[in-house]
Amino acid sequence: MVNNIVEKIKDWSEKTPNTIFFDEGDTSFSYSDLEKTSHSLAAYLEEKFDNKDGIIVYGGQDSRMIISFLACIKSGHGYIPIDAHTPKERVQMILEESNATCVIALDEWPLEKVGPKIIERTDFNQLIEEEKQPTLGNIVSGEDIFYTIFTSGTTGKPKGVQITYSNLESFCSWMTKEFSLKHGQRFLCQAPFSFDLSVMDLYPALLTGGTLVPMEKKMVESFPLLFGSIPKMALNVWVSTPSLIEICLLNPDFTSEKLPTLENFQFCGEELPHVVAQKLIDRFPNAVIYNTYGPTEATVAITSVPITQNILDNNDRLPLGRVKEDTRLIILNEEGSVLSEGEVGEIIIVGPGISVGYFNNPEKTEEAFFLYEGEAAYRTGDAGLIKDGLLYYKGRLDFQIKWHGYRIELGDIDHHLMMIDEIRNACVVPKYNKNHKVQQLIAYVVCKKMINDDEKETISYLKTHLLESVMDYMVPQRYIFVDTLPLTANGKVDRKFLINEVNK
């Protein structure tokens, strides 16, 4: 069984054993350490769990998360990353949905210690020091599941997107060939490992003998801390959503003069606004800037384009790029017919990066995944067109949005709002800015009763309760209290009407 990703990381552990793979200061692990520790943990997992079921890895921006990922893969288990900032209720839902065989808890596990075996940090630290050798007889390869990332679902339950080794190998091969990467670069590692944007820095860095440099959540939430830390990171490759770079550009010192090593920008997760790209080119005239596109279900990204001044001068709304060599893009109309170049329809992705589907969810899998001319295909729900070989985004066909790079099903937030006793009905809608980007989440709410008959107190109450069950970026910023919600002809809440209302 062949796993070229594991083999390449092993090669770096032999060629450059002392290179740091994850920069945590004095306690940093080298590539040699990565190989030895992941081997030791893999040997334990191989011995204790003889199935192919997934293993939850719970924690933050930590080198031990990566050691755990590799150990899972070496022992024949796909991993399921959960960020330590995830609300307890959501952790519980993922645990129940995932059918995980084991949990590696590198931060304090928030649930009762019942069910699958839980390897806590103290146990973990002992296991990685044992210097055991796994057989690698069940190493993840071919169509085995490499990782499962749980995304927002319309019913309030997360959906587990399963990515195989073959899916990831297709992505990594493209990244290492097409994105101007060099050996030994320092990569920004900001996206939580439970967000598939993290895969864009994690594996390209490890496959090129690079160093991942963490940017923790607390840093992003504090401008002084963020602006003061970036110069010390000595980054070469910047991977993030456009939202993060917008924040960084507020700092006048975010320039090539102050950050001379920063030479490669890669954006995914949401649309790159024209004004942001122009500022970045002005500040970093010699850097390469890649705009990319792709849903989690197609393995991170499937198109790319270097953003140049010529592209900016000729496009008000930036292209998403050309599709990677082993993949096809099809634009379909509502009747399922293929549209010609320049016509807007649903973006269909066809190729080896397409997920095998949602874990244990055949109904949702059947809705989104199908065979197109004998190849795996995915219905994105995104509207787009192709012009001169470049893909252009034209918005969502349904009510799934991107907010700060995170994909959110609006119905997911509705569901959790309506679980609050005081709420009779709710509908969350996005407000867009002039760059067609979500600027604000607005909740229309029908209350059974206000808290102490006070609107402000009720809003505070709703936000507090939502934070117990959804991620912080899913909590609406504005609340409009109404007696009833508008309905469509078939009796459903008319979300389109409300979206039009807030975006007049």
Structure description:
The chain is built from 16 helices and 26 strands. The protein has 504 residues and is an alpha/beta fold. Among the domains are: 29-140, 3-Layer(aba) Sandwich (Rossmann fold), CATH 3.40.50; 324-396, Luciferase, Domain 3 (Luciferase, domain 3), CATH 2.30.38; 400-502, ANL, C-terminal domain (GMP Synthetase, Chain A, domain 3, 2-Layer Sandwich). The strands form 8 sheets. Strands 11-12-13-14-15 form a 5-stranded mixed β-sheet, with helices on both faces. Strands 16, 17, 19, 20 and 21 form a 5-stranded antiparallel β-sheet that branches. α1 crosses α2.
Note the topology:
Elements (H helix, E strand, L loop, with lengths): L3 H12 L4 E3 L6 E2 H18 L6 E5 L3 H12 L4 E5 L4 H11 L3 E4 L11 E4 H7 L17 E7 L7 E6 H14 L7 E4 L8 H10 L3 E4 L2 H4 L2 H11 L3 E4 L1 H7 L15 E4 L6 H10 L4 E6 L9 E4 L2 H6 L7 E2 L4 E5 L12 E6 L6 E2 L3 H7 E4 L2 E13 L2 E7 L3 E4 L2 E4 H9 L4 E10 L5 E10 L7 H12 L11 E4 L13 H8 L2
Helix pairs in contact: 1-2, 2-3
